[in-house]
Every structure is written in C-alpha cells, then in structure tokens.
Amino acid sequence: MKTFLPKIDLQNRKWHVMNAEGAILGRLAVRVADVLRGKNKPIYTPHLDAGDFVVVVNADKVVVSGKKETEKLYMSYSGWKGGEKFTSIAQTRSKNAEKLILRAVKGMLPKNRLGDQLLTKLKVFNGPTHTHQAQNPSPLAL
C-alpha cells in the first residue's frame, strides 16, 4: 500500500483574520497555530505546509490569566557571559505587544525549517486595522 500525499495548492491559500481583544493568550495561540499548520483541514500532513494565512488584530488587548502579567518572565540570552535578560509580560506589552502573540505561536510550531516557514504566514497588528484588506480575509472564531 502506498502512502497518500496530498497535492498542496500554494496559490489558493485562504486568509483569516482573528480579533485578539479579550482573548486569552494561550487559547488564541493554539487556534492560530492549528490554522497555520493546516490541522483544521482533511488534507493535513505533518511534514507539509498545508495551512492558511492568519492576520491577528488588537494584539495589545490580549489577556493573560492569573498573575502572569507580572510574574511570568521571558528570558533572552546574548551568548556572552552575564548576557541574560528577563522581561515580564507587562514590559513586553508596553514595548512591543505583537511579540507576545508571535512568541506564543512560535512555541506551538515545530522546531525546524517547517516551523520557520509556517511563522511567516502569521501577521500581527496592534490596532484594529491591518494592511491585508486586498486578500479578503474571512473572520476566524476562537
């Protein structure tokens, strides 16, 4: 028996828009990651990019539960001795709120070249407007 490999039509990928206002960060990231990978389609294959484009608006109004706003820390390391930097969600939100969603979704994608390719299909905007009106994105429910 042969393994079935679906034909992925790169020209006819759909665009979806999701409003992050009042949405919980983790639940939003799971939904976005599933659409990016194509897990919501019957032709899903783990090693192929069968997903759609996702535009997230109102990224600055995403919600985290509990005390994570002040207690959860993101670490970055420069590679040098003593080059660790810790930032809380509140600091990240005030500086660049788009990174909150990008970082949460990136953690739910594969850690390889496919994951990097999938992340390029995610577009995140702080305000209610976005620059992808020409693609006629359909609304995506949480």
The radius of gyration over CA amounts to: 17 Å
Q: Determine the CATH topology of the domain at 15-65 and 97-139.
A: Ribosomal Protein L13p, Chain: A
Work out the helicity level. Answer: 25-40%
Task: Provide the spatial order of strands within the biggest beta sheet.
Answer: 5-2-1-6
Which structural class should the secondary elements be placed in?
Answer: alpha/beta
Shape descriptor = globular
Indicate the low-confidence ranges by residue numbers. Answer: none
SSE order in H/E notation? EHEHEEHHHEE
Task: Summarize this entry quickly.
By secondary structure, the chain is α/β, with parallel strands linked by helices. Helices cover 29% and strands 18% of the residues.
Characterization of this structure:
The protein has 142 residues and is an alpha/beta fold. The protein has a domain at 15-65 and 97-139: Alpha-Beta Complex (Ribosomal Protein L13p, Chain: A). It contains five helices and six strands, in the order βαβαββαααββ. The chain has helices spanning 25-37, 68-71, 89-96, 98-106, 113-119; strands at residues 15-19, 53-57, 73-77, 84-88, 122-124, 138-139. The strands form two sheets. The chain has a four-stranded parallel β-sheet, covered by helices on one side. A two-stranded antiparallel sheet has the order 3-4. Helix 1 crosses helix 4 (98-106). The radius of gyration is 17 Å and the shape is globular. The termini are far apart. The relative contact order is 0.24.
